[in-house]
Amino acid sequence: MTRNVGIIGLGHVGSTIANYIVTGGFADELVLIDTNEKKVNADATDFHDAMANLPFHTNITVNDYSAIKDADVVISAVGNISLQKDNKEHDRFIELPFTKEAVKSVSEKIKASGFNGILIDITNPCDVITTMYQHFTGLPKNHVMGTGTLLDSSRMRRAVSSELGIDPRSVGGYNLGEHGNSQFTAWSSVRVLGQPITEVAKQRNIDLAKLDEVARAGGYTVFHGKHYTNYGIAAAAVRLANIIMSDARSEVPVSNFHEEYNTYLSYPAIVGRDGVIEQLHLGLTDDEKEKLATSANYIRTRFEDTVKDM
Amino acid sequence: MTRNVGIIGLGHVGSTIANYIVTGGFADELVLIDTNEKKVNADATDFHDAMANLPFHTNITVNDYSAIKDADVVISAVGNISLQKDNKEHDRFIELPFTKEAVKSVSEKIKASGFNGILIDITNPCDVITTMYQHFTGLPKNHVMGTGTLLDSSRMRRAVSSELGIDPRSVGGYNLGEHGNSQFTAWSSVRVLGQPITEVAKQRNIDLAKLDEVARAGGYTVFHGKHYTNYGIAAAAVRLANIIMSDARSEVPVSNFHEEYNTYLSYPAIVGRDGVIEQLHLGLTDDEKEKLATSANYIRTRFEDTVKDM
Amino acid sequence: MTRNVGIIGLGHVGSTIANYIVTGGFADELVLIDTNEKKVNADATDFHDAMANLPFHTNITVNDYSAIKDADVVISAVGNISLQKDNKEHDRFIELPFTKEAVKSVSEKIKASGFNGILIDITNPCDVITTMYQHFTGLPKNHVMGTGTLLDSSRMRRAVSSELGIDPRSVGGYNLGEHGNSQFTAWSSVRVLGQPITEVAKQRNIDLAKLDEVARAGGYTVFHGKHYTNYGIAAAAVRLANIIMSDARSEVPVSNFHEEYNTYLSYPAIVGRDGVIEQLHLGLTDDEKEKLATSANYIRTRFEDTVKDM
Amino acid sequence: MTRNVGIIGLGHVGSTIANYIVTGGFADELVLIDTNEKKVNADATDFHDAMANLPFHTNITVNDYSAIKDADVVISAVGNISLQKDNKEHDRFIELPFTKEAVKSVSEKIKASGFNGILIDITNPCDVITTMYQHFTGLPKNHVMGTGTLLDSSRMRRAVSSELGIDPRSVGGYNLGEHGNSQFTAWSSVRVLGQPITEVAKQRNIDLAKLDEVARAGGYTVFHGKHYTNYGIAAAAVRLANIIMSDARSEVPVSNFHEEYNTYLSYPAIVGRDGVIEQLHLGLTDDEKEKLATSANYIRTRFEDTVKDM
């Protein structure tokens, strides 16, 4: 019983997630897995060195797949950010040759463990990898999801809130599609100050296209300033894990499987202990619908290309 | 008013501290300062990208010393961990040629800001740098302290708790002296299971010298496994900052100025909003007293050598 | 510096608020004021008895108005719930003869203290009392607000979320007007599942009028089941205090002064360290506009009747 | 999976515990049980009315014993504080005629549910009722414990910390024996400022007997000032529940079964997910040993008298 979370991949993102869970007291059992034994043991010891000064206690297990059998949530943060080093465009597909093999292998170990909780994927390219996780683990489609545009939406909300001088939590709305270059802000879904942002933008002469750029530019500022991003994505992933464990049934834009497009893609859904419980139906504009279809098509094609020779 | 914290140095340690403060909601105003503009802006943006998914809100100011004028606490995490790269012994003095110049410059800017809160130093070599901070800022001695052996004590408590299968928070006692190679566990101060650990060790055949090694080895595991340590020290520093801001008057082993030895060194003290409020008087053994004097002497000599030509 | 909160009135509501602040570590200084010395001392000692087992420390001052001089936020929870005992309708005006005198006296003491932070009123009838607080303290209108329909909106969100099986935090929208019998749900502002609730209600055959009843019935269940309500209102008040202290600039429906109606009434606003920073402009239906005007008129009339002979 | 807590008895104590769990996000499933259906439903609705304004989500089930089958922890806060009304001495045995029948009935329902987690008793007289719970539920002795002198120890720590101007968390040591009039502070176990309190008391002319009175007087201040106590005991109980759920293996003075005295009594133990894991052996003085034996004898006798005709 009690809360059991597994994290696979203890790079910048995975270890930041683990630290947030440890300092926040969100899990009772934390299973940390990484092929770099030295790194995962370093992090585990560092967490243990923190515990005398923390309000909560967390039990940590290292590199033991059998310990995720009873996990409520497993988070995949497998990655190889060094592959992104000279990637000016920050195209997340640059990591795919590495991550696709890693994910296949991880999936087999997850499956072998008997894990039957909810799998959250952060590993990039997020939507393709999420699809692969579902494909290789055989877990129900609604039990596998990616953080997807939960991060992109937060960036959009940061840009909007900064423009208007308000709390990002008081900005509603979503970025949709691929957690990658084909994603877009569904401005028709964004509401601020009690109104559609399109209205507010007219009144205040705000250029939404520029806000889109500001949101993206923020991502680049982070990536080019430190060669990885971790705090924003960790906050998103831990919030999602907590939603699942507490069966909160919250509305979040995550990468979830859409029959209509026959692929995973980010679109808001109600998420709880049974994973994706209900998918929303936004009143998108025609232009947004087209962008979404394009993004979906791109993900599906990339997935098919990727798995056909595996 | 409300809580205002400054962090100087946004490397692995400083940014982990900032993240714990942001996710925990411990400060209302957070001032982040680093000479690497790209890095500090990357972290600030990453924190902003997290905020839509966090329960608390924190306002962040970047690279503006004037904003620390009203800070309750300023934490120095200035460092250059790359200097430690080929340092097998992990001698923290290897960073001194870099940090002494940085700290002098930072002190002048802190002084110019009009800051009159509490200064917590993490920058290594911790005791020498803490002394320098007091020297160069002119702040009252009890308003400047170093995290010192708060981390070493946590490591000792981790090692003891692991041996006995108990919560590290249920291990009392202290490591004393330099936050460096001359520090030592004052076993006479360590109590577990309602008894002095020396008694428990006899009953259970526990070799305390070995536990000392385990505590140190843990530090090496972290350092050599990831080339820096951050989570343990961040938990210690944030706990200390919270103690100060809430005027908790808690007992903690920090680097504080001791008239007797005419130097900063780590020894438990009562800490609150007025900094170091009261120094403890432990009943150390003769051997421990000697070790402490040696450690104190080492720190004082290194400080004098360092500042004489500055 | 650091966070300073005053609470005036330590009945069911005030003491529950104090406890949430103490257990959550949201304030460093907490000033508790009540005319019942025995009760306020009992609560203060009870909080002190809790502190050895809590992660945070809070300093508590009892019955000293001078200690609120530097408070960031003062919360009025003055009340006399026993007056509500045989009040089948739960008309909050039944408390007015008692509270109006209490509030005048409290206002004079607040004024004399030199307090210049933000005043949050919970005392009922909320909107009239909030108006009186502003009137008698002379604080700027945007520095005085009432919790108002923040609680009613939470009840509406609870009713809607329960009907749809989703997180109440995933229900957007507001109850407006008087925190009393003339308040109403502005259904045009309520959005769920990415759509206006009016659309969702049509699709799923949900009777919004019935949901309104469920929301109200919940309030009665609480009031008649224990003769007071405290947990819902305390969560609302503490959230509001935290928003102010962290200058979060969040969108919340609170009782704030509206020039248009020349009265305090609940309507969403952006709230931060400077109190009410910006008022929203909702696209209400004609029917809702009329209800709001009626509610505003009722509050203004009651206020004028109340103060004319004071 | 995830955290599941049951609370039986939603009076002042039980509902304050529930509220701390809900606001702190410590449980995912909370089962509330009380014979007063109106009161327990009022509290449940009040918690639901809070949730839109809280950072965490908690699912609440009311009056369904089958829902505690999978509970990690069940807390008994059954009581009838009105029986204490004219009880000048605050003798907790005054509640026994009521609580013994209630506890027998509750035990049968707990047993029937199939519950096999850890049972924490707060119901008074605590040690006798804890013994009864173990007796009637048939749960393993180490899986049943009472909060016992965890509260008395906190009161002692409050009195000591107030005398010395330090954090109560920086006062170590225990009150032992019955959670009632025969309990006593084991001053030999109390340490402050790095020394035994007996030493500090000599140096500073502190009368420990007077501190004992101050600790007790605090309890009376609370009880006579509001006719119940809730915040101190709730903090103790929730800390204990968290220790159990996170398997923290912390040292806490709880009412646990001692073979030597053939009874439950409060004495520090290591507590984790398997309940009482290890009992401490304090180096008590002869006087303290005698007091403990007297207290143990009193509890055992009262238990035997109580159950012989049930």
UniProtKB/TrEMBL annotation, chains A, B, C, D:
NAD recorded as keyword: yes
Superkingdom field: Bacteria
Active-site residues annotated for this sequence: 179
Keyword NAD on entry: yes
Signal peptide: none
Domain Lactate/malate dehydrogenase C-terminal: 149-305
Membership in a protein family: Belongs to the LDH/MDH superfamily. LDH family.
Name of the molecule in the record: L-2-hydroxyisocaproate dehydrogenase
Organism of provenance: Lentilactobacillus parafarraginis F0439
